[in-house]
Amino acid sequence: MATQKFSNDKSNQQSNMKYETLEKGPKRKYTRKSKIDEKAKEMIDQMIDEQIIVQTNEQ
C-alpha cells in the first residue's frame, strides 16, 4: 500500500512539471572584412563620384 501511494505521488509530480524553452540570443555577426568588399566599395564610390561630376557638368 505504501509503494502504491509513493508511485502515485511520483506520477503526479511528473505530470505537474512545466517545461520552458530558452530563447537563443542573436547570433554573432560575421565582422571580418574581406578585400573583395573593400574593392567593391571603392568601385561604387568611384562610380558615384563620376555621376556627380557628370551631373554638375550638365548644370
Describe, in plain words, how this protein is organized in 3D.
With 59 residues, the protein is mainly α. The chain has a domain at 33-59. 64% of the residues lie in helices and 0% in strands. The chain is built from two helices and no strands. The longest helix has 24 residues, at 35-58. It is elongated. Residues 1-18 have a biased composition (Polar residues). Residues 1-34 are annotated as: Disordered.
Q: How big is the Rg?
A: 33 Å
| Helix content percent band | 55-70%
- Class computed from helices, strands and strand pairing: mainly alpha
Largest sheet: none
Number of strands: 0
What is the chain-wise order of helices and strands?
Answer: HH
Arithmetic mean pLDDT: 73
Q: Helix tally?
A: 2
What are the low-pLDDT stretches, counting only 5+ consecutive residues below 50? none
Short description:
This protein is 64% helix and 0% strand. The protein is mostly helical and 59 residues long.
